[in-house]
């Protein structure tokens, strides 16, 4: 069994369809053949200011949603990043082998810091991809299931692993991104050339897993399309309709082109109405289950504690190798 590793930030009350179709759905399917480590990355969340009470609540909400969608704590270690100190410890070592200019090239930092002005951004936001590299490399995973927007960070992770391996001794495995083409990037319903994003999209542009299903149905019916009124899968020419077809295809397991064929001679209203029904049918049980799991915090604490124990057993071993190789004296 090969290992897989991925993380998600507890920075919203709910995950959205971009997170789910881009990454989290693969977290569930990869459990069958692999040994997964999945974490809620609270240390990444504080790279921008968070209200402590809200952060704690969202960490629990994240864990509940992962369980509700089918991440199974028997097969997967589900844990909170700050429960495994080796992440921050390895990040320091990797900071020291990362060139400043290399970190500066990360487009996500450029995008996120552009909003408040670079001067207002934390050093943590700047070095976040290096902490992410540490998150991954500690577990020596074969694959990292993520959305397309994480590809550049994965490249940095591989570069740092290779650099450490050549400068010291082979220690890290070079992980491959696991990105499914069909759902690599889900777009904003109101602005279908931009990615669906919790920080950049308007509420009408995002479908949240924990939204009232009636609200999600309404958002789909109000999605921006085009003035042609021909249902066809053409992401370049018809981004709005194609995004709806991609979501439809992912939830039903049918190819987007084939679904488009069902609507020959019919309008966008029919497509939107049917997709709204599919989405409501999908989110309703997931949401009910997540809200039920949130009622029992001590059960969630236990899942997270056992996940963290499994994670620490692997991460501490890798960190000990790293400390040894860089020349730190072993404590008695
Ligand atoms: N629109 C998307 N399409 C496909 N995949 C996506 N992901 C995010 N948006 C899309 C993937 O979701 C995973 C979790 O990401 P995260 O916790 O790092 O959140 P994020 O990337 O910060 O999510 P957002 O909504 O895009 O937040 P902001 O707006 O803050 O940047 C990752 O695997 C990501 O690729």
Give your account of this protein's structure.
The protein is mostly helical. The chain has 13 helices and five strands. It has helices spanning 17-29, 42-45, 52-69, 86-95, 100-104, 107-116, 123-137, 151-167, 213-221, 239-252, 256-262, 268-293, 297-326; strands at 2-8, 34-40, 77-80, 143-145, 176-178. The strands form two sheets. A three-stranded parallel sheet has the order 1-2-3. It has a two-stranded parallel ribbon with strand order 4-5. α1 links the parallel β1 (2-8) and β2 (34-40). α10 crosses α12 (268-293). The chain is globular, with a radius of gyration of 21 Å. The two termini are 34 Å apart. 42% of the residues are buried. The mean pLDDT is 95. The chain binds adenosine-5'-tetraphosphate (AQP). Residues 8-9, 18-19, 22-23, 146-147, 149-150, 185-186, 195-200 line the site of adenosine-5'-tetraphosphate.
Count of helices? 13
**Ranges with pLDDT <50 over ≥5 residues?**
none
Strand content: 5-15%
Rg value: 21 Å
Order of helices and strands: EHEHHEHHHHEHEHHHHH
Largest sheet strand order: 1-2-3
Backbone structural class: mainly alpha
Strand count, sense and barrel status of the largest sheet are: 3 strands, parallel
Overall 3D shape = globular
How many beta strands in the DSSP annotation? 5
**N- to C-terminal separation?**
34 Å
Instruction: Please state the average pLDDT score.
Output: 95
Any ligands, ions or cofactors bound here, and which? adenosine-5'-tetraphosphate
Helix content: 40-55%
